[in-house]
Design brief:
The protein is α+β, with helices and mostly antiparallel strands. The protein has a single domain (about 10-240), classed as 4-Layer Sandwich (Double-stranded beta-helix). The chain is about 15% helix and about 40% strand. The chain has helices spanning about 60-75, 140-145, 205-210, 235-245, 255-265; strands at about 10-15, 20-25, 30-35, 40-45, 45-55, 80-85, 95-100, 105-110, 115-120, 125-130, 135-140, 155-160, 160-170, 170-185, 190, 195-200, 215-230. Strands 9, 11, 12, 14, 15, 16 and 17 form a seven-stranded antiparallel beta sheet that branches. β1 and β2 (about 20-25) form a beta hairpin. The longest helix is centred in the first third of the chain and has 14 residues, at about 60-75.
Amino acid sequence: MVEKDMKCHEVDYKIYGDDMQMVEIELDPGEVIIAEAGSMNWMEQGIDFEARMGDGSKPDTGFFGKLMDAGKRVLTGESIFMTHFTNHDSSNKSRVTFAAPYPGKIVPLDMNEIGGELLCQKDAFLCAAYGTEVGIAFQKKLGAGLFGGEGFILQRLRGDGLAFIHAGGTIIEKELKGETLRIDTGCIAAFSPSLSYDIERSGGLKSMVFGGEGLFLATLSGHGKVWLQSLPFSRLAGRILAAAPQGGGRDKGEGSVLGGISRIFES
């Protein structure tokens, strides 16, 4: 749950695009938005940015506290720094825009409306209102950590303001009311911490080997929300690698028969 004294900055936003989206954040004088390093597209005059260790949600932690937070971010594969964008114009609103890193959707989340806490895949966080805590969560079950697509480490978002996550392809939000949902392990974008996360075998031996759905499925059960993505980045990357020309040369004819014949005679 959200700490009672937590109060994130109140920001306005607008999302542009369809499959390669960007989110425009409008900052009042003095307001701050935090974001992953390298996600900014453009910003208006009046906004300055600074790379800092930590998200700024706990300003009294001191240097070693910030160092610990930075170390946790390293575990998720992210930069040790987060970028803080501040509107220093004392009289005018200014806007800054952030882009999704690959095809998919940007999901705006009012953390106060979803219980103040969310678990998401380790590269899902895009930006959030200042005061939002961006941390990590470890899987409690060894099997889920070893075989689940989310791995041992998830990102944990806490706050009472707006946060924005990104997921691949089309996004669907489902609410579980005591039932169990079986999901391809890479297709979970985010879920409520009230849900129980585990893994199970995808079927019999023949289905596991030849079914093409992977060896394991993730299961979410209980009461809470889950956001599912149709195109996990790992699936997208795998298709790109499979279609890439071998040996660094340019593929002739792409998928055509002539292109395949020409590769036979290439050295």
